[in-house]
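look at this stuff:

>
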Amino acid sequence: TGVVLWFAMKILWRRRNRLGASRSGVGIPLPYVAEGKVYLDWNATSPIFPEVTAAALPFLSRNFGNPSSDHCFGAPCRDAVSISRLQLASLIGCGDDEVVFTGCGSEADNMAIRGAVRLGKTGFANKELVPHIVTSAIEHPAITACIRDLEELGEATATFVPVEADGRVRPEAVAAAVKETTVLVTIMHSNNEVGSVMDIATISALVRGKSTEAQRRLGLPLIHTDAAQSIGKVKVKVHELGCDLLTLVGHKFGAPKGIAALYVRREVQLPSLLYGGGQEGGRRAGTESVPLIVAMGAAARVVDWELEAINSHMRQMIDRLYRGLVTALKQHTLRVNGPPLNAGDGLRLPNTLSLGISGAKASELLAKLTVSDIAASASAACHSADTAQDSISFVLVAMRVPDEFAKGTLRLSVGRHTSSKEVDRAVSVIAEHLSSCVKI
């Protein structure tokens, strides 16, 4: 079966090279988004790509079998899961046996963190030692909440490394936080609010250079990066990053919600988070959701094949958006939060604009934009509903963004299907509403 799947992937790659960019969906508006509505919140979630829907539909009808079953109904589903695993492996440059499907990014992050802590607890010769985790001050709540829980239970200690004013963490600061008891270093690949990209490769090299002989014997500390916001926007290859664990989230790059994956380097014996059946090589119990896995595989194929075109398109749309706002808002003082917009992929995401508007109140402006069918945000969707209307994002606080800009910050993010027409309408509507939102 493995040989057949390998040749199937080879055929797909040949078709890709033959078709080239002529069949690309980059820049083409989605047919199911009504005229006049503008979606600039791709960092919260992406629309499901049409190719992804088409790939998943057969597994919502005739291909309904359990992938663990040996009969004729299970075999097509099992093969589909295997192909999807190969597609994800191709995307990030790993072996298909190193891809573990999970139900969401939060589960993948928890699996990485709690698994590393268990490895430390069982491996330490001195059982009184408490595993230590190094992370940054601007991680996703899936990381910080899990770590805080372990701290409260007395199962781990943690160091939260501060970030620079551009939203990036210094690799030297991360390495300096490593102790003899450090079992995990988890630093996001890119930030979901300001788009800053971290230097994971240098972090990995410095951390490994600082580990003790005792840690190396245990294969510790493990290095994990949450790449949820980076996949489908910039190149992400695990061998270049030097990481042991990496989180991918389907709904951030064209797949439905409810499916994610954790890359686990082959040599890492990461303990399971969920127990039950022997699915996912015994690493994650639970019958696989074949439609969602197929969808994630199809999305991985799309962004793998079109990455260069998608990256370029996103950069063009953000540049058009920013230039349009600068021209339309000449009377206002603007601040780009994070690295400069002209920075390369190694410094910032091509699709994200965190724009501080002096004197504005983001909550008021967003309310007006919502009425006008412009979708944007002020912070990460996963926790924006739980904060006070005029509170400042913890990411902007960590970056020491001045209050006058932080309180008026919009997060605008584009994607594969964002059009120039959408961008121009957003500029016009934002400028119109700002006239009534900015304090004189």
About this structure: Residues 92 and 238 are 6 Å apart (CA to CA). Residues 290-328 form the longest helix (39 residues). DSSP finds 16 helices and twelve strands in the chain. The chain has two domains: 81-300, 307-437.
